[in-house]
From TrEMBL:
<feature type="domain" description="Rhodanese">
    <location>
        <begin position="32"/>
        <end position="76"/>
    </location>
</feature>
<dbReference type="Pfam" id="PF01266">
    <property type="entry name" value="DAO"/>
</dbReference>
<dbReference type="InterPro" id="IPR006076">
    <property type="entry name" value="FAD-dep_OxRdtase"/>
</dbReference>
<keyword id="KW-0560">Oxidoreductase</keyword>
<protein>
    <submittedName>
        <fullName>Sarcosine oxidase subunit beta</fullName>
    </submittedName>
</protein>
<dbReference type="InterPro" id="IPR036188">
    <property type="entry name" value="FAD/NAD-bd_sf"/>
</dbReference>
<dbReference type="InterPro" id="IPR001763">
    <property type="entry name" value="Rhodanese-like_dom"/>
</dbReference>
Amino acid sequence: MPFNLLKYGLSSEYPVEVDLPPPRELKSSYDVVIIGAGGHGLATAYYLARYHGITNIAVLEKSYLGGGNTARNTAVIRSNYLTSEGVRFYAESVRMFQGLSNEFDFNIMYSERGQLTLAHTDATVRSFRQRAEVNKHFGGRSEMIDRQQIRELVPSLNLDPGHLPVIAGLWHIDGATARHDAVAWGYAKQAAKRGVEIHQLTEVQDLIIENDAITAVKTNRGTIKCGCAVQAIAGHSSLLMAKAGIRSPIQTFPLQAMVTQPFKPFLDPLVSSSALHCYVQQTSRGEVVFGGGSDPYPLFNTRSTLDLKESLLAHAIEMFPFLANAKLMRQWAGITDMTPDYSPIMGLSPVKNYYLDAGWGTWGFKATPVCGKTMAELVASGGKVPELIKPFGLERFSTFRQVNEMGATAASH
């Protein structure tokens, strides 16, 4: 068997399929330049190419494909938000995620596991009841469950942590996970097949704006002209918006997570606590992932810190006491662009033909398909904003029409 595998691998007829073409020189101009080769930028390119026939596209990435926040999240997918605008938007994303493996012919390891959010106070129970009804009304699947149902769903969970006994829970049936880098590679592979150029190690240094319209993008590999540009970067959104002369309401914070050694399966649902400010999930490899609130100060840095590790793990151990003996394997951080109302900024900008996909906070991965679809519609229409993303326009901060999603999760809000 090993000899046959070696023979097969060294054969000149080895039928390997190349996912991405080799690097090439930048052209002098493109119809569309997308800044950022994470999930959102690649998804936008794919939907433009497949459904709108626009293929003269350059996706620019300063490091490597999917290496920013796409590679630094915990891969949770859900739609149990607070507002009708948010639920409609994320419910559509969940629906699209469910069919991505078939659409790509590429396994993104989508796993519907459900998400359980614990309520420790009467006020939280009232809030969860409202969320459950909003979810059901706008296409999500959420319901309230009691302590006995929680005990049956997660037998290993401590229902009486310290002074915060669990009263009830919000059970979100649609909660799921997917392999984050597989999502990015699936979009990249299918976009490249249709002629989209993906340029890694290509940093955008400046935006060239003439008569209030973007005309070109300056990179470390030269300047390229463009018919329009889409900003789809995470962590540094406000800095790029400043280059375009756009005033931004975004502040950027590090967000940390960590993972243990692998265990035999004991936790299928994703479990979070709104009071303990912590979430716990077990991966398909058996590792236990912990996440929680962001750092309390703005910073453009992906370093890990001991103080947050200690506080986060203390809360996780209150939920699952036996994990006190688990060994941590690694700890990492991403940088999140937070808006005042904890909702994204999508759509038009004050600069003509410069489109914004920013301010995602901790919610960018779960919006990948619907974001790509709607941003592609926006670009292909020449600036007609799709109904699904109209509430998330930048102008809402000057018209006082915020979409308040504060408190919609147990992490960072």
